[in-house]
Write a structure and sequence with these properties.
Length: 278
């Protein structure tokens, strides 16, 4: 592969809603410095694996630094952005897939929206499987079966490694449970103690574990999650008043909501509306 090249294949999917696993796309790219993609939304799972260099992956207000021999997961319907490093731009291989069992396989891999990084001790084997998926696109007969076979090998490798590292898994389960609680209850009056009690940990240990996993305290994550939801409501529904949006994301005090919104976004909710709607 020479510098700054890309090759990709998007497959025509006819049975994506009734298959356990389907390959949607695959490819590789040698990126230029600062080359970026997004913000964008996918309708399937997409995994990139970095074979050289480094870059950054962004989801919501979280930033993940991805290095050589690491991968990152993009989940369906999530808004993501990623960018190659200016000095050591990454090269990566990717595969996109979905299917009835895809969410369960992702869970078994120990991955999710807020835990998207793939670490492996078998990077050579990962690269081999992903490259084989792409090479299989050249076949005239049996292409889909061969591609799916190597995808299963890749997924099984990461699943096996994730099950070996039980200390990572139990921490992930705590964080995932807390994130699910936030998603279901952000519009209500919830506290960090509520979160800690929900996952069965004391508040101090929970806060330490949460920050170590997401590089954000649970307090700041909850604030940013609520403000991002507020932005979605402001963008999607022009009939909602700011007071309506405030209550919808868990702020009964509109003044407190406006102050928090400005601190996070750099402008007030009314200024945000004006900038978005002109």
């Amino acid at each position: 592969m020479s510098d700054f090249l890309m090759e990709e294949l998007f497959l025509e999917i006819t049975n994506k809603y009734d298959s356990n696993l389907v390959v949607y796309q695959c490819g590789w790219e040698n990126c230029r410095p600062k080359h970026s993609y997004g913000p964008a939304i996918r309708d399937h799972y997409l995994i990139h694996f970095v074979t050289k260099g480094c870059g950054k992956f962004y989801i919501d207000d979280l930033t993940f630094e991805i290095k050589e021999n690491q991968g990152f997961l993009i989940c369906p319907e999530d808004v993501t952005y990623y960018e190659a490093d200016e000095n050591m731009p990454w090269n990566y291989i990717w595969v996109g897939f979905n299917g009835l069992k895809a969410p369960e396989y992702i869970r078994q891999m120990g991955l999710g929206k807020y835990n998207p990084i793939i670490n492996t001790k078998n990077s050579d084997l990962v690269c081999e499987y992903l490259n084989k998926i792409f090479e299989s696109t050249k076949l005239e007969h049996g292409r889909e079966i061969r591609m799916l076979g190597y995808l299963y090998l890749f997924l099984s490798l990461i699943i096996e490694e994730s099950k070996v590292n039980q200390t990572v898994n139990y921490k992930y389960e705590y964080i995932q449970k807390a994130l699910e609680y936030i998603e279901m209850n952000y519009s209500r009056s919830i506290s960090i103690k509520n979160l800690a009690d929900h996952v069965g940990l004391n508040r101090s240990y929970f806060s330490t574990l949460f920050k170590a996993s997401l590089n954000l305290s649970p307090e700041n994550f909850l604030i940013q999650y609520r403000i991002n939801k507020a932005c979605e409501l402001l963008n999607q529904n022009k009939t909602l008043r700011i007071s309506d949006v405030s209550r919808s994301v868990g702020y009964m005090d509109q003044l407190a909501f406006s102050k928090t919104f400005k601190k996070v976004k750099g402008c007030s909710p009314s200024e945000y509306l004006w900038l978005k709607r002109g």
